[in-house]
């Protein structure tokens, strides 16, 4: 597979993921039924509780809660494993790897050949770090997968995030797909005219030219979009329409989230 | 004689070295449905942007209802508010105009900027979605819509403000025949209303449906104006301005020949 095909496959993959997330956000699951503000507050409380906890079993318990929420929200653990747990394990694992070797404490094992000691305290510390990050990432991904992006943004607005920040995030999400499509079309048209493999320098030239064209298109588009905003009365201030309504289930779940987070915070001190 | 909605006098506009409008003169009267006809690059879209106060001419003067339309004038918040409330522009590329996360938010954008009461905004947006028959799209993200759906949303996002003047840049461009036909039906529905409608197009099939008066553009100047029926008979003028071309076709009798002519389609 040449670099054009690999890039095209990457674009298609990114679009498929976004489509999967949007379909999942519409499913009839526990988290999908909740008011986005309750979800943001509840999940944020659990993330903070996991981040503050110093005991592995407490962090493990919050992770188990995240898993239960995933199952009841129709999010497949296999998808979570592939998209969250494995990449997080690889990334955080590298950071946590030296901990069992450098943190002093009771020796539990020695590495063969190198004869370096692994300590119980170091292993516990590394496990805590990895589990904490896995838990926080799982909860955050659940929030995004089970809520349409537009609702997440509105919930952030209601929770006091500055409106300009929210609007920029919303527009970035909207136009990233347009540019993705544009880049995809550009590379596809190039592939339709290519025979055989490109040499290294030619590959780099093609990639640089594509980036240049995309930047130029982006600038043109941003000017046009600004014009379209002005045409409908934009004068530098941004206003949004918030239309949330809470139901009994929302208040019950908020109580459950806060109780679980408080319990985890108390036990994990 | 009524004050023109737009009066364009000796307007010149350049993109770097390229002249888009060259000492252009035209006036658009209130309540008229006007078509700006011309081939690609003849300056139609640039004129719409000038009429909407998005870009300003290098030379010449544009007035809106007797008031100068200049960058300085549009610094005045009261004037800008009134101007944006009264004039709506639908862009040719719908992706330019669809920047909100959902269709509902998109249609609500204009009213929010004009700071209408929130209850009124909700009611008006719902009503406009209903009128445009796109209520089922209201929670959809614009990047999942077809081109026809996007065009309808862009039109709804402007019409919700109930502007007195509607500027439409190639409203049927890139639409399939059915969507184009729906769009034309909608524009025909504006006939006899109070709105002033300015439509740019090079699609001669729709001109008589969407306009009572036409201006033909060539290289940034108006080369002819008049009633659509009269102008559409001027074959040599249309050929000279690249609006029609001679091409070969086969008749049912088996005869093959070429000559410039207009098309009309049935859907």
Give an overview in words:
The complex is a heterodimer of chains A (269) and B (267). Chain A is mostly helical and 269 residues long. Chain A has one domain (3-25, 35-267). Chain A has helices spanning 3-25, 30-33, 36-52, 56-72, 77-96, 99-102, 120-145, 149-158, 163-192, 200-231, 248-267; strands at 107-110, 117-119. In chain A, strands 1-2 form a two-stranded antiparallel ribbon. In chain A, strand 1 (107-110) and strand 2 form a beta hairpin. The longest helix of chain A has 32 residues, at 200-231. The model of chain A has no long low-confidence stretch (mean pLDDT 84). Chain B is an alpha/beta fold. In chain B, the strands form 3 sheets. A 6-stranded mixed beta sheet of chain B has the order 6-7-8-3-9-10, sandwiched between helices. In chain B, strands 2-1-4-5 form a 4-stranded antiparallel beta sheet, with helices on one face. The longest helix of chain B is centred in the middle third of the chain and has 14 residues, at 118-131. The radius of gyration of chain B is 19 Å and the shape is globular. The termini of chain B are far apart. The interface between A and B is medium-sized, with 30 and 40 residues.
Topology of this protein?
The complex is a heterodimer of chains A (269) and B (267).
Chain A: H1 3-25, H2 30-33, H3 36-52, H4 56-72, H5 77-96, H6 99-102, E1 107-110, E2 117-119, H7 120-145, H8 149-158, H9 163-192, H10 200-231, H11 248-267
Antiparallel strand pairs in A: 1-2
Helix pairs in contact in A: 1-9, 3-4, 3-7, 3-11, 4-7, 4-11, 5-7, 8-9, 9-10
Chain B: E1 6-15, E2 18-28, E3 33-37, H1 44-51, E4 59-64, E5 67-68, H2 77-86, E6 87-90, H3 94-97, H4 103-113, H5 118-131, H6 147-159, E7 165-169, H7 177-189, E8 196-201, H8 204-210, E9 213-218, E10 221-226, H9 228-231, H10 235-240, E11 246-250, E12 256-260
Parallel strand pairs in B: 3-8, 3-9, 6-7, 7-8
Antiparallel strand pairs in B: 1-2, 1-4, 4-5, 9-10, 11-12
């Amino acid at each position: 597979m040449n670099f054009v095909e690999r890039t095209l496959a990457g674009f298609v993959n990114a679009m498929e993921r976004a489509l999967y997330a949007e379909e999942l956000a519409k499913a009839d699951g526990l988290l999908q039924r909740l008011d986005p503000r309750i979800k943001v507050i509840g999940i944020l409380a659990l993330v903070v509780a996991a981040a503050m906890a110093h005991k592995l079993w407490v962090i493990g318990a919050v992770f188990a809660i995240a898993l239960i929420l995933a199952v009841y929200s129709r999010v497949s653990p296999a998808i979570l494993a592939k998209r969250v747990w494995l990449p997080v394990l690889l990334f955080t694992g590298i950071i946590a790897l030296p901990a069992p070797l450098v943190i002093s404490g009771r020796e539990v094992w020695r590495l063969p050949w190198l004869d370096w000691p692994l300590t119980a305290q170091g292993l516990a510390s590394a496990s805590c770090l990895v589990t904490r990050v896995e838990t926080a990432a799982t909860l955050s991904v659940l929030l995004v997968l089970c809520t349409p992006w537009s609702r997440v943004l509105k919930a952030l607005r209601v929770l006091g995030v500055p409106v300009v920040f929210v609007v920029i995030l919303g527009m970035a999400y909207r136009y990233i797909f347009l540019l993705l499509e544009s880049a995809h079309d550009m590379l596809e048209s190039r592939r339709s005219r290519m025979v055989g493999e490109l040499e290294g320098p030619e590959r780099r030239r093609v990639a640089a030219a594509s980036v240049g064209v995309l930047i130029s298109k982006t600038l043109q588009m941003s000017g046009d979009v600004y014009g379209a905003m002005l045409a409908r009365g934009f004068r530098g201030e941004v206003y949004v329409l918030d239309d949330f309504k809470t139901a009994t289930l929302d208040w019950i779940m908020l109580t459950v989230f806060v109780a679980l987070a408080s319990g985890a915070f108390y036990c994990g001190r | 004689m009524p004050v023109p909605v737009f009066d364009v006098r000796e307007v010149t506009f350049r993109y770097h070295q390229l002249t888009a409008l060259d000492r252009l003169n035209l006036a658009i009267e209130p309540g008229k449905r006007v078509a700006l006809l011309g081939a690609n690059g003849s300056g139609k879209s640039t004129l719409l942007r000038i009429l909407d106060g998005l870009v300003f001419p290098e030379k010449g003067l544009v007035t809106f209802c007797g008031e100068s339309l200049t960058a300085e004038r549009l610094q005045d918040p009261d004037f800008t508010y009134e101007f944006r409330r009264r004039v709506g522009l639908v862009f040719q590329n719908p992706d330019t105009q669809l920047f909100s996360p959902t269709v509902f938010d998109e249609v609500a954008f204009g009213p929010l900027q004009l700071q209408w009461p929130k209850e009124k905004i909700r009611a008006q947006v719902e009503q406009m979605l209903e009128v445009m028959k796109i209520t089922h799209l209201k929670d959809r993200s614009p990047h999942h819509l077809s081109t026809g759906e996007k065009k309808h949303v862009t039109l709804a996002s402007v019409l919700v403000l109930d502007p007195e003047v509607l500027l439409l840049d190639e409203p049927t461009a890139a639409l399939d025949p059915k969507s184009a036909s729906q769009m034309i039906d909608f524009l025909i529905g504006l006939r006899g209303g109070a709105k002033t409608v300015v439509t740019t197009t090079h699609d001669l099939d729709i001109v008589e449906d969407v306009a009572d008066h036409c201006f033909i553009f060539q290289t940034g100047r108006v080369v002819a104006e008049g009633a659509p029926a009269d102008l559409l008979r001027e074959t040599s003028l249309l050929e000279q301005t690249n609006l029609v071309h001679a091409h070969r076709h086969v008749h049912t009798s088996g005869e093959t020949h070429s000559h410039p002519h207009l098309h009309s389609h049935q859907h």
